[in-house]
Amino acid sequence: MTDQSRIRNFSIIAHIDHGKSTLADRLLERTGAITEREMREQMLDTMDLERERGITIKAQTVRLGYTANDGQDYILNLIDTPGHVDFSYEVRRSLAACEGALLLVDAAQGVQAQTLANAYLAVEAGLEIVPALNKIDLPAADPEGAAAEITGILGGDPADVVRISAKTGAGVDELFERLVATVPAPTGDPDAPLRALVFDSYYDAYRGVVCYVRVVDGELRDGDLIRFMATREEHPVNEVGVLTPRSVEVAKLGPGEVGYLITGVKEIDQIKVGDTVTTAANRATEALMGYEEPKPMVFSGLFPTDGDDFERLREALEKLRLNDASLVYEPETSKALGFGFRAGFLGLLHMEIIRERLEREYGLDLVATAPSVAYELVRTDGSESTIRSPQDLPDPSEIHSISEPYVRAMIITPTEYIGTIMELVTNRRGEVGNMHYLTTDRVELTYHLPLAEVVFDFFDNLKSRTRGYASLDYETEDYRQSDLVKVDILLNGMPVDAFSAIVHRSAAQDYGRTMVDRLRKLIPRQMFDVPIQAAVGSRIISRETVKAKRKDVLAKCYGGDVSRKRKLLEKQKEGKRRMKMVGSVEVPQEAFVAALQVDD
Amino acid sequence: MIALPAHPETAERSSGLRSAYVHIPFCARVCPYCDFAVVGGEDDRISDYIDAVVAEIAIEPQWHRLDAVFVGGGTPSRVPAAQMRRVLDALVVRFGIAEDAEITLEANPEDWTQEHSDTLAEIGFNRVSFGVQSFDPVVLVSLGRLHTPIQASESVAIARASGFGSVSVDLIYGHPVETEDSWTDTLRTAVEVAPDHVSAYSLTVEPGTELWKQVRSGAPAPDSDIQADRWEQAAEFLAEAGYVRYEVSNHARPGHACRYNLSVWGQGEYVAFGMGAHGYRDGVRSRRVRRLDTYIERMRSGIGPIQSSDVIEGWNAELERLMLGLRRTAGVRSGEGGEALLASPQGARLIDAGVLAVVDDRLVAANPLLTDEIIRAVLDLDEPA
């Protein structure tokens, strides 16, 4: 057990590509936690997706030994956080396990919206912030400007912002010293009943659920019977240990210490991340933080392209859920797409990650329906329900009111783009909130927007309007009543459930026209005219026709041709097999994918 | 009794005919749209080739007397009549040819002199099919043809004078340079020269051809909607002139439907000789090597010309019966495959769309221009348990 005065628990808050992973590797190397060879192995162990996107999906934790300039040995626990808004609940839990946060900003790019959002979370959680500028070795670096931005937001003296290059190692020693000096030591009560925060968990095929914990008061001992305060479940401790980053078993963890806990629980939802662990014999009375069920915000139907893959999709989702309690799904049947699942995600990125993992790691070919949000419906008879799929919306005559989730969106942008962003936000039914100048040429804008508008290609639009300079973050706020309608798309008079969408009445015409127009180009000519219509209720708001094909016959088929012509027709037939029948209309699989593609 | 070209009885009777196909690959040059087994400018190999064909005929196991002989190409009219005589003689020796057999030769107008025509008639040919393609000089040049419209008209008259009992002309429509008027004129001229039979094909861009390469590098491709218009125009015009459309692309006066082709569409059997030729005998479809040198070499060395063969039997044969028969105006006897089609969702869809019809006990392509929609559905049918 380590003396609390020698412990420093901190997180790193950084934007994608601002160098968090490189710095983490540098810290590991500098403290001798792992060798260079091991480091490469560790890199290989992380998910491809994480490395490609430069983000952390699962939090990682490591205990570093460091001898400071004062001659004392310190334990630095680095508790890594997911860097994305979709995972803000995870971020908050990780921050709750720390006393300090290292705010890492790319000296060339300056502060980004997501970093700022997480920095605010850290300040809210009462953490001491250690600001640092990375990539000072880059020619484009502007340490003075970036430092001014940081102190403009968080206060302090620009001169105190540590300048480092995680790549070259410059300034890393100074950073260590600053962490030791600035991050407060934990001040838990060693004699009080045990209180430890579960800030993350993962499923291990051999060991069951492994919890990451931060002990606040008391001691977590191997063999003790412990109690999870929120779930009120009791389990014996099978193993406790620290992460160096290898798992190293210890007899106990004392106040301020960070490590892992294994209880023999096999199912990930049985242990709620955010829960507080105490001992069954000597229970604490107050939990450390309020536990929240992860709340899916974005929903999408996932359907295997090949109907035979339904079971494989189910198994893949089950496996992903082993490690991701925030992923929820239930079976959904679509007339057009067959059997699939309606899945709920924390946000757009979470959705994309899950989709990509299903396709890459499980080799599934999927059609995903347009993302939607959860609407609160009040019927004329006064009953209330939550609508997660356009299919579930009743006839307009049964609807008293519909409310939709709103978010507070924070956008950081160079000032020259304010006009175009305002325009975008207004088009998306947004309300203007605050405008806060970070420097003379960078500004932080706050808006209130319907989440549905944000999930529908808002970010891509923002990026293209600002040539990639604007960054976005959002958090959910409240539900507001809106004038929403369901737009149905009909092929040859038959509604195609996969294309239905709930949109604001003012956007119905646009959505209808866009879909009708796309489908007109995607649906091949058939044996008969195929009308494509968009409708709100029984009112047709847009219409196009795919004219019947005129000629589909080979010019010749003679004695010498029979085999060849047959082969040709067989091949064409195989192409037809990949079509889905919607009523009597043959729709190519690609048409579903292409029509549902968000970006044009 | 004169056989009505589109009558179901005519169609069904042809299934019992026994035919021979002989392939002559030689051409002055290869037309840009052609993907048949042909060679251009290799006439010096004609004699060697005919030796090989005659040898191949001699080793084919004995069979029935032939009801029809079809010498196709390529351009069979390039081959001297004396060589063609060797081929017919070999067929007579090996199988015998029925008294009233249809004996067809494909010909190009530019090769068709009175003397050549007379000799070919004399040695036994009684039907000639001319590769006219168009009576519009612009279209002819675009198709890479070497004759003039006048030569085309004259060749029909020459064949008549030689006593050919049945004369056919081939036409191609839908080339991007062709206009509606041009096609009307071609049809009118064709009717004026009064052949007994007209085959009208939509120009097709076959992979690997010169035309295909041109289209791939940006030349205009034939427009399928325009081709549909031209098809309708031809059907109407030729019908008025007394020609009956008895297959997707074939029109004939009563008594002049091509018996060899009718036999193929009726799943009749035929022996085949020459490079690239396909035969269908005793339920086996055989394919000969497609290269001139290889074919000749294989015959010389006694290896034989067969490259591969497939057994067509059971359900497979049933589906093929429908596939071939549906191209005919007379349609095809429904049978087991037809029952399966009509019982399938695709069958119902085809009926609903007015593409497929049931007339008496026969399946008929109600819209011949969409016949392949039906055939694909047929080829997708599983054998009933």
Reconstruct the topology from this structure.
The complex is a heterodimer of chains A (600) and B (385).
Chain A: E1 7-14, H1 20-30, H2 36-45, H3 48-53, E2 61-67, E3 73-79, H4 88-96, E4 100-106, H5 113-124, E5 128-134, H6 143-154, E6 162-163, H7 172-182, E7 195-204, E8 208-217, E9 220-221, E10 225-228, E11 233-236, E12 239-243, E13 247-250, E14 252-253, E15 258-262, E16 276-279, E17 298-304, H8 310-322, E18 328-334, E19 338-345, H9 348-361, E20 366-368, E21 372-373, E22 375-379, E23 384-387, E24 399-414, H10 418-427, E25 431-437, E26 442-450, H11 451-455, H12 458-465, E27 471-482, E28 484-491, E29 494-495, E30 501-504, H13 505-522, E31 530-536, E32 539-546, H14 562-577, E33 579-582, E34 585-588, H15 589-596
Parallel strand pairs in A: 1-3, 1-4, 4-5, 5-6
Antiparallel strand pairs in A: 2-3, 7-8, 7-16, 8-15, 9-14, 10-11, 10-16, 12-13, 12-15, 17-19, 17-20, 17-21, 18-19, 22-23, 22-24, 24-26, 24-27, 25-26, 28-29, 28-30, 28-31, 31-32, 33-34
Helix pairs in contact in A: 13-15
Chain B: H1 8-14, E1 18-24, E2 26-27, E3 39-40, H2 46-59, E4 66-73, H3 81-94, E5 97-107, H4 114-122, E6 127-133, H5 137-142, H6 149-162, E7 166-173, H7 180-192, E8 197-202, H8 210-216, H9 224-240, E9 244-247, E10 250-252, H10 259-265, E11 269-273, E12 278-281, E13 284-288, H11 292-301, E14 306-311, H12 314-325, E15 332-333, H13 335-343, H14 345-352, E16 356-359, E17 362-365, H15 371-379
Parallel strand pairs in B: 1-4, 1-11, 2-3, 4-5, 5-6, 6-7, 7-8
Antiparallel strand pairs in B: 8-10, 9-10, 12-13, 13-14, 15-17, 16-17
Helix pairs in contact in B: 1-10, 2-3, 2-11, 4-6, 7-9, 12-13, 12-15, 13-14
